[in-house]
Specification:
Blueprint (H helix, E strand, L loop, with lengths): L10 H10 L1 E5 L4 E3 L7 E7 L2 E6 L5 E7 L4 E2 L15 E4 L3 E7 H10 L1 H27 L2 H17 L6 E3 L3 H8 L3 H13 L3 E4 L2 E4 L2 H8 L1
Antiparallel strand pairs: 1-8, 2-7, 3-6, 3-8, 4-5, 4-7, 9-11, 10-11
Helix pairs in contact: 2-3, 4-5, 4-7, 5-6
């Protein structure tokens, strides 16, 4: 597959990076990495969807994001200094594949390629932008808009580029975690979308019927 995040590398270096990766396969519900474990590799998501989960101070679980093909995690492992630890657990929501790049291999490449350093900066900058956008959303956007945006993003992720209705095989509980709301309040938003013909609800799934309207609502 194409890896836009590797675009800053010269062709030879891009091939070298991919050649140095190890293909890893994960079954549904399998934990890819555990929160708190040493971070020693970058993972490029090749197929499947994965959840980014953290533990709260109260011992509960929170889902921060859903990753799909072309996404990545573990970029902090590429930084110099003391090896960092995983800031979140990554769990496969379905059968998934990643390409794992050891941090040591990346450092060797960085010593001879300026593009590798630019790649690291691009990865970190993209992550900061994503986190900043989420913080602004939580602070200044209402729950309806947050639900519309996350659901639109999920629909695009699960559509794989295909047109028409798309089934998002996630529970309302998980969607509530993603938007920082409660399940009852998120259900109210979804019920309004059902009444407008935008979505259908089923057990463990949300079907986005009218993607164009949802995109407009998401802004």
């Amino acid at each position: 597959m194409e890896w836009p995040l590797l675009a800053s590398l010269a062709e030879d270096d891009r091939r070298a990076v991919l050649a140095a990766t190890r293909l890893r396969r994960f079954a549904r519900s399998e934990v890819v990495v555990h929160e708190g474990d040493p971070a020693d590799s970058l993972h490029l998501v090749e197929s499947g969807r994965l959840a980014v989960r953290v533990s709260t101070s109260g011992g509960e679980r929170a889902t921060l994001n859903i990753l799909g093909p072309g996404d990545y995690f573990g970029e902090l492992s590429l930084l110099d200094g003391r090896p960092p630890v995983r800031s979140a657990s990554i769990v496969a929501l379905e059968a998934a594949q990643t390409r794992s790049l050891p941090a040591s291999t990346f450092r060797e490449l960085r010593d001879r390629s300026r593009g590798a350093q630019q790649l690291l900066l691009a990865l970190l900058a993209r992550r900061v932008e994503e986190l900043s956008a989420r913080v602004v959303e939580v602070m200044y956007e209402g729950l309806d808009r947050r639900v519309h945006r996350r659901l639109h993003e999920l629909a695009e992720l699960y559509a794989d580029g295909a047109p028409g209705p798309v089934v998002v095989p996630l529970t309302q509980e998980l969607l509530a975690e993603l938007v920082g709301g409660t399940r009852p309040s998120v259900n109210q938003v979804l019920q309004r979308l059902v009444a407008q013909g935008v979505v259908d609800l089923g057990r463990g799934r949300i079907t986005v019927v009218d993607r164009a309207t949802l995109a407009r609502k998401a802004g």
